[in-house]
Amino acid sequence: MSQAGISRPVDEQVGYVLKKAATVLRAAMDNALRPLDLTVSQYACLELLRQQPGLSGSELARAMFVSRQSMNLVLKGLERRGLLIRSPVPPHGKALPTRLAPAGLERLAAANEAVSVVEKKMLAGLTPEAERRLCADLTACVEALGDDLPADVSD
Amino acid sequence: MSQAGISRPVDEQVGYVLKKAATVLRAAMDNALRPLDLTVSQYACLELLRQQPGLSGSELARAMFVSRQSMNLVLKGLERRGLLIRSPVPPHGKALPTRLAPAGLERLAAANEAVSVVEKKMLAGLTPEAERRLCADLTACVEALGDDLPADVSD
DNA sequence: TCGTACATGTCAACACGCTGACATGATGCA
DNA sequence: TGCATCATGTCAGCGTGTTGACATGTACGA
């Protein structure tokens, strides 16, 4: 209690650098996606649906680390713009399977182009080996913090 | 335009893993700081002021990647609670130098204890060597994305 | 000296995400 | 069968952060 702990400058603390990297990347992606009239959340939602068609709102929310309510807003917006299609009637429980509309797939293709540019720029200074290592180390951090707990962000 | 680009699952994309790590870390820090009645933003603000006393609101905002306006709200809250002190009159331009109050330093010491636990847990699976490498790689990513641009988040 | 540019603090309005709460449909068990 | 439990979708309210705008104080150059 005598001294206030860590004296290392924030620039060398993993947490700080991690936040900075996430912030800068998000800003860069926002800029890249703005001409396509897509936010990062909307883009991520479309890409997830391309890889895993038929996901429900709750499943998408978990995959994107946001609440069901937030995801619901994203889905409503994308549906209203004709970029995706939700079953009007739940085939099983209350879950509404969601799929990309043709317009959504088209928009996503352009978005992936733009995002790819940003990603390449970000990783320009890293070897493929370093890139894999970075992913692995970050994943190790996530699991060390108890990845098992966050079944959902809210709830 | 024929195929929608990246087919790699999102779990292996740096951007996705980066966001996940940042989200999980923030959640863990929020939990750790809640008993102390501090948010992550408030904690970061106090820690920055400990390392660099006398910073103005705008300087703090830049260091924390938020807008001046957001930082202003954080500072008002901390000042009202007696955790920091702002010069009532600007000594030079309009910038108001800010310093930790004794109560703030005390609270910060406890907060650093709590945050240190979370950080240790997160880095448990990494060697010190890997930790440094992780920081370096993330910093490289930030700089590759054009670290020079974001003078301020807003503006 | 004047005026332009720039940085800072502050107010207002808006967007996004979260928590809390509720209703509904499915599942499992007594 | 009846009931408890769980997951999902949805509504309302709140907090946080952002953009836009404005006033003020400083520094620089004609």
Q: Biggest interface, and residues per chain?
A: A-B, 69 and 69 residues
The ordered string of helix (H) and strand (E) elements of chain A is HHHHEEHH
Give the class of chain A from helix and strand content and strand pairing. mainly alpha
Approximately how much beta-strand content do the residues of chain A carry? under 5%
The CATH superfamily of chain A is: Winged helix-like DNA-binding domain superfamily/Winged helix DNA-binding domain
How much helicity do the residues of chain A have? 55-70%
The major sheet of chain A is characterized as: 2 strands, antiparallel
CATH hierarchy, class of chain A? Mainly Alpha
Number of β-strand runs of chain A: 2
Which whole number gives the mean pLDDT of chain A?
A: 89
Give the secondary structure arrangement, pairings included.
The structure is a homodimer of 155-residue chains.
Chain A lengths: L13 H20 L6 H12 L5 H8 L3 H13 L3 E3 L11 E3 L1 H21 L5 H17 L11
Antiparallel strand pairs in A: 1-2
The structure holds a DNA duplex (30 and 30 nucleotides).
GO molecular function, one term (chains A, B): DNA binding
Organism (chains A, B): Pseudosporangium ferrugineum
Keywords (chains A, B): DNA-binding
